[in-house]
Inverse folding.
């Protein structure tokens, strides 16, 4: 009888456990709201990881772009002003990653138009490092 329970438990465990499931506890996600008279930013996840609660703040205007799976991008969200890099916070498998710019002194705003922030993650010595670069769409 004990063997039967052990076998049952092992089968149940393997059937219900799946490491590929992506669970993201979403916070309040900002609406998609592109505006031809503003700087419009979308976010592209070029990493091998799935992102959760991707918050972009360009000069204080924080927007939650939500969940972004590897290789996917978000819709555009309008900003009054943005630069080629920004404050970024996100979560990967429960681990928080942040890019924290010190200031934008000497930087030129992106201007009116449509842009993509490309987010990547590099792992060095078992520590994840987030990076960002911008392209014009």
């Amino acid at each position: 009888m004990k063997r039967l329970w052990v076998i049952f438990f092992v089968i149940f465990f393997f059937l219900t456990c799946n490491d590929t499931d992506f669970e993201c506890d979403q916070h309040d996600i900002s609406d998609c709201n592109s505006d031809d008279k503003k700087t419009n930013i979308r976010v592209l996840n070029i990493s091998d990881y799935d992102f959760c609660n991707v918050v972009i703040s360009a000069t204080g205007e924080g927007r939650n772009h939500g969940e972004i799976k590897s290789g996917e991008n978000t819709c555009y969200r309008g900003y009054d002003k943005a630069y080629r890099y920004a404050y970024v916070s996100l979560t990967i498998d429960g681990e928080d990653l942040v890019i924290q710019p010190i200031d934008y002194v000497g930087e030129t705003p992106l201007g009116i138009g449509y842009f993509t922030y490309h987010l990547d993650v590099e792992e060095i010595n078992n520590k994840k490092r987030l990076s960002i670069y911008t392209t014009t769409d």
